[in-house]
Amino acid sequence: MPKKREKLTETKKETISQELLENFVHMQKVMTNVANKLDNLTINIAELLKLFEGAAMSFTQKQSHGDLEKDKEFLDKLNTLVDQNKTIAKGLTLMEEKIREKLYGPSAEQRISINPKPFPRL
Known about the structure:
The protein is mainly α.
């Protein structure tokens, strides 16, 4: 009887070894497929970068001097507008402070500067 047990285990061992070998081969096929797809992806990304570089070169070559002047003029107008907005914001802030003083009285900072309290003597 012990011999039958050994034969059964040898058969199982061979089956397991065969399945492991098949799984290993299948895993290598999958890894090869992944490597090929990564190579294709790398090639596609390189082509896309070349396309972007070509578009950038074309854009810089086609941009005329007149367009640069228009852009400079537009930026100057934007800078003027930003400066005007700063001036308006300062004016609104000052107006808000004056209205707040009329409604609520002088602020705590102004009260301290108007009536400074003496320090207590030790």
